[in-house]
Structures are given as C-alpha cells and as structure tokens.
Design goal:
By secondary structure, the protein is of the alpha+beta class. It has two domains: 349 residues, Bira Bifunctional Protein, Domain 2 (BirA Bifunctional Protein, domain 2); 114 residues, Rossmann fold (3-Layer(aba) Sandwich). It is 39% helix and 20% strand. The protein has 18 helices and 18 strands. The strands form four sheets. The protein has an eight-stranded mixed β-sheet with strand order 1-5-6-13-12-11-7-10. The chain has a five-stranded mixed β-sheet with strand order 15-14-16-17-18. A hairpin with a 5-residue loop joins strand 8 and strand 9. Helix 5 packs antiparallel against helix 10 and helix 9 runs antiparallel to helix 10. The radius of gyration is 29 Å and the shape is elongated. The termini are far apart.
Amino acid sequence: MSGPENQKPQKLLARQPRGFADRGPADIAATERMLAHIRETYELYGFDAVETPFVEYTDALGKFLPDQDRPNEGVFSFQDDDEQWLSLRYDLTAPLARHVAENYDTLPKPYRSYRAGWVFRNEKPGPGRFRQFMQFDADTVGAASVSADAEICMMAADTLERVGIARGDYAVKINNRKVLDGVLEAIGLADDIHTGKRLTVLRAIDKLDRLGPEGVTLLLGEGRKDESGDYTKGAGLDAGQIARVLAFTAARGATADETLANLEQVVEGSARGLEGVSELREIATLVTAAGYDDGRVTIDPAVVRGLEYYTGPVYEAELTFIVAGDDGQPVRFGSVAGGGRYDGLVARFRGEPVPATGFSIGVSRLLAALKIVGSPIVQGAAPIGPVVVLVLDRDQIAHYQGLVTTLRQAGIRAELYLGASGLKAQMKYADRRQSPAVVIQGSNERAEGIVQIKDLVAGSQQAAQSGQDLDNAAYKAQRLAQFSVKESELVDAVRGVLDNQGG
C-alpha cells in the first residue's frame, strides 16, 4: 500500500502564457538594428531620448482602453502595500504625459522626446495579437500648431524608408478627430451621455481596413460575430446614422482638395467639424511645400485611431504591398505605426491645456514587414558566437581560463567550455554556439607552448566540398581549417581567422 509519502511530486509543466512570446538571438539582433535606424531618424529631427518605468499608478494611465470598469480590465493591475492601484503601462504616451506634467517647469517647451519599450494589454490574444509588445514613440509636447503634426507625419515617412520600406510601398494617412466629432454631432452623439457609444463607433471605424464596410456596418449596428464565434456588441446606430458615418469614411477623393471638399459637405453645420477640415487643409499645405505630397503623406478620412484621448489630427503609417492573410487570401499588410494629437492628456495633471502630438511604431509588426520585403536590416549576418576554448585536461582549467581571458582582453568574444563532455561533444557544442573557431590544447601542445586553432567555417566548407572532384593541387590551395601557433600569437591568429570570415 502506498501513501502520500511514497508519491512522486508532480513535474511542473513548462508552458508559455497566452499572448506572450520568447525571442531568440537572431530576432533580437535584427530588432536592435532596426531600432538603431529608427533612433537615427528621430535624432535627425531633433528628438531626445527619455525612458519611463513599466509601472504607473492606474489613475495616471486613465480609462482609455475598452472594458475598464475595474482596474484590471484592459490593463494588468495590482495593488501596492498601501492599497494604491498600479498598472503595467499599455502604451508609452500616457506615461510620457505624467513625466511631462511632473517635470513641466524644468523641461524645454516644446519638448521633443522619443522612447522605446515594452507595453502590456490585458486583452484577448490571437494570431499576431500579443499581450506584450514593443513600441517606439516620438512626441512633441507644447506645440499647438498643426505644423508639429505635419512634421511627425513626414518623419514617419522618412523612418519607414530608412529601415528599408521602399517609396510607393507605404502611405502615411492623416485625418482629424474634430471632423469625426462633427459627424457624431450630426447623428446626435455629441452629448457626454453618449461617450460610450462614441467610443464604440470609433473602434468600429478603426477596423475598416480589416473588416471592410460590411463588417463595420455590423459593428455600428447591432453587433458582429467573428470567425471564432465570439460576439462583439455594436453601437446600436440606426440605418441613417450608419450611412452618415460610412459616407464620412468614404470621403477620400482623387486629390487632397477633393477630399477636403467632400469632408466639408459631410460636417456641414458643425463648427468643430469645419475646424478639423481647416486644420487638415493647413497640414496638406505644409506637406505639399515639403514635397511629401507624392503619395508619401495623404489625407484619408478612414483613419480614426481607436484610443479615446486623441483630440485633433490622427495618422497611421500603412504598408500597401500585398501579403497572404490568415485565410490565404491576398490582403494589404496594413498599419505599422500610428498616433495623433492629444491636447488633453497632460492637462489631466496640470488643469490647463498643454498641446501635444506624437506617433508610435509597432516594433514587432514593422520587423515582420521588413522580413517580407527583404530589408538588409533583417537579412544582416546572424550574431557570431564566441570563440570556444576547449578543455582536454580537467586539471588545467586555470590555464585554459587564462587563454580565454587573453582573448577577452583583446576584445574577442570568447568562452571556456564548462561542461563535462569529451572532445567530440565539445566540438558539437561549439557548432551549436555558431562559434567561428575553437582553441585546442592538449598536454603535448602545452609542453611546447603552442595551441591548435580550428577555423569552424573553413572546416564546414571543406566538409561540403569533400564529395566533389577536387584535384590535389586545388585541395592544397585551400586554407587549412586547423593550424598551430605559439600561445603568444593566439590573439593575432584568432583575429586573422575572424577577419577571413568577415567577422
């Protein structure tokens, strides 16, 4: 008879939380190269780096995500020991607003900053939809002129080209929330009692590219059931209201002037709506003067952005090339960045208007796009592994460690094999580490004061050619994969191997 004391403890199941992902060295290296190019563009425009923490007080973030009737809806939240609610940031804009408000008197105005970092959203994960993802933002705080919005959009275009998106394969599209406010006013949703319904309308329009007019019509009406069977409640608009909203999204004409004329008709009678059209006209003038009206930056009424805090111009950077969708059908790649003006966000802390505008790049999504277009940024060489010093004599670990230290002091990435396996297994380990070379020294070599260096890249090439018909002279002409040098020549010899490999 076996009792509880004889039962083996249950093995812990290794499992990744839904909506989160691990990343390997190649993906990390490609991301870092891309971030460096983005950073260069932002700095070229005069933006400086700033960093905010992952955690903010929940009330500082505000209620700008859906389903946030309690603190942990939409965001990941917890209570501190003083019973204050804290949350993981869901974007980089709300923390920036807190940072600016807290340091307002010491910051230069306008304040131009950029920041990159992870953000977290407590939402349903799905294909390409993660609960943790990276954003890279740039913002101008303290500039009321829409010239700041125009500049951000032009910088977005320059950034996409700098990372490898060809001109013609993207468009930075601009709209204005004031124009949409005019449309909502025209259909009777201007009062504060309709705040929830207005936000539902915004999020429905924001899905136009993905769901098309039919899907958006359902979300503006009674609701929509997706492919998985999940039901999303609609805004409950009637047929006339839906038609007015869809007319707004379809107002884009062949030229900016035609689009603006169409928008004026849609918002006729709304002072706020006409103010938004006027701001768009000023942005179009600035874009034209800078030469970005060649398709790089355009006016598009279909852009609304889903977050509630936008107060004026809003914009999205959309990639226009075709890819296979989840169902295998051809679709545009879609949005990789977006943003807009949020004049009320800093004001929540200061009680006075503080104009601000900015945009955010979805880092993982942009990286996926660069892989599709074959950008050199993501096709760069994979990270080179360290030179591995093998251990043939266990009683000589200290001596082997000295060889490793000599390489490191010369700026050469190196490591000592720390396992317990023999020579063959150590060589396999070095291959898995993508090592460019290994250093081998047995007792005989040590007595002579020499080491053996094996070039693993040349060795692989020779192995691949061993089945080909090579005459003896051609074979001898090849650089031998393994050779001996004095210990005092170790650094120069290893550096020569790395140089030959292009490392």
